[in-house]
Amino acid sequence: MSTLSERILGAPAGAYVDRDVDIAFAHDGTGVLTLEALREMGVERLPRPGRLRLIFDHIVPANTGTTATLQAELRAFARVSGIPLSDAGCGICHQVMSEGLVRPGMIVVGADSHTCTAGAFGAFATGVGATDMAAIWASGGTWFRVPETIAINLSGNLSGAAEPKDVALTYVARLGMEGATYRALEFAGEGVRGISMDGRLTLCNMAVETGAKAGIFYADDLTLSYLADYGVKASPQVPEECRYERTLDIDLDDIVPLVAVPHRVDTVREAEEIAGTRLDQVFVGTCTNGRYEDLERFARIVRGKKVAVRTLVFPASRAVLSRAIKTGILADIVDAGCVVGPPGCGPCLGAHAGVLGEGEVCLSTANRNFKNRMGVGGEIYLSSVATAAVSALAGEIAVPEVA
Ligand SMILES: CC(C)[C@H](C(=O)O)[C@@H](O)C(=O)O
Ligand code: SF4
């Protein structure tokens, strides 16, 4: 009788286990540090390069000569070591993982904290540091302490303008930024069924904002049909009776549009309470909310209208961008006056495109609003896509009525 994390890691909570990993990836930022650590360790050959991956997403295309040189070095390393490389323009590592690479039951590690996103497929997926990643690349495996699990028990259905992002902000606010440290969050209950795969990815993505190692859903029919579109065959995972450390009940019928206010992601208000807050920028994208369903929802709201404030839209991957072009929603977004950027992290971490100036205020669909993250002196509010869309049209924080 095990939690899903216990089942995948093959031991009860609290145990330490050594496991091979199915996928171990790094991006352009942490890849540079991983390579540096490998060189310091004197590692020359990597045993299973096919299970490793480099994905360029954080600063793409390169913003300075120094960045370009580091990326060129990493590219050359991938070539000689046989590591598959997804180069600039492919999209955010977590989105690339979710497009047919991750399967139920896998153990996935990534040198990025939001690796927990892949738990949406019933995989145990967690972020590690670059030095740990170097050791994993050199050996093919690592140790884990099997986490205790907090169940997030979902009931009911989302209604009105509420989105999975509002559910994520709800559990982050209720658990707090350290409330689930070293735990796994397992999404359970009848309410799970009504949440799309894109929505499940959003929910798992924010698990790390509570300190959790992983966020995880059982693979069900929806998971299997999503994966089938990528040519991946998988079996469902049937939940067992198991012991959770605690259970957090969330009734989806009660969820309303929410906003995390500066500078903590667990400081959450109803959008209604802070409506009218003046904005300098709206940012739609990231590994939290840059997927096709998000862009479609955004386009539906801004179609035929004009945004009243600088609005940046960065699709999470090439596949998302391509689909948005083919279905025509990208034209709606551009015609509404938005700036569309290349697939990748974009302004999320304040490294390039879309950096905020001193005192500027941004409403973003990302997962973090730490002080100075998008630029020194900038202020970040976090919301759903629908809230971002109506706010972009209003030039100030506004409350969406229908998603
Ligand atoms: C740059 C990277 C190490 C970092 C992370 O791991 O989360 C980034 O993706 C972020 O969101 O802050
Ligand atoms: S989109 Fe933002 S949160 Fe996600 S991996 Fe990139 S920088 Fe990190």
Q: What structural class do you assign from the helix and strand content?
A: alpha/beta
Radius of gyration: 20 Å
Across the major sheet, the strand order is 13-12-18-17-14-15-16
Number of strands: 18
Major β-sheet profile: 7 strands, mixed
Our count of helices gives 14
Name every ligand kind in the structure.
Answer: 3-isopropylmalic acid, iron/sulfur cluster
Mean pLDDT: 97
Indicate the overall shape: globular
How far do the termini sit from each other? Answer: 39 Å
Beta-strand percentage range: 15-25%
Key features of this structure:
403 residues; alpha/beta; seven-stranded mixed beta sheet; five-stranded parallel beta sheet; 14 helices; 18 strands; 19% strand; binds 3-isopropylmalic acid; binds iron/sulfur cluster
Describe the secondary-structure layout.
Blueprint: H1 4-9, E1 16-20, E2 23-27, H2 28-41, E3 52-55, H3 65-81, E4 85-86, H4 93-97, E5 107-110, E6 124-127, H5 130-139, E7 141-145, E8 149-155, H6 164-175, E9 184-188, H7 197-205, E10 214-216, H8 221-228, E11 246-251, E12 258-260, E13 268-270, H9 271-274, E14 281-284, H10 286-289, H11 292-302, E15 310-313, H12 318-327, H13 329-335, E16 339-340, E17 361-364, E18 379-383, H14 385-394
Parallel strand pairs: 2-3, 2-5, 3-4, 5-6, 8-9, 8-11, 9-10, 14-15, 14-17, 15-16, 17-18
Antiparallel strand pairs: 1-7, 12-13, 12-18
Helix pairs in contact: 2-3, 2-5, 6-7, 11-13, 11-14
The chain binds 3-isopropylmalic acid (IPM) and iron/sulfur cluster (SF4).
3-isopropylmalic acid binds near residues 29, 30 and 349.
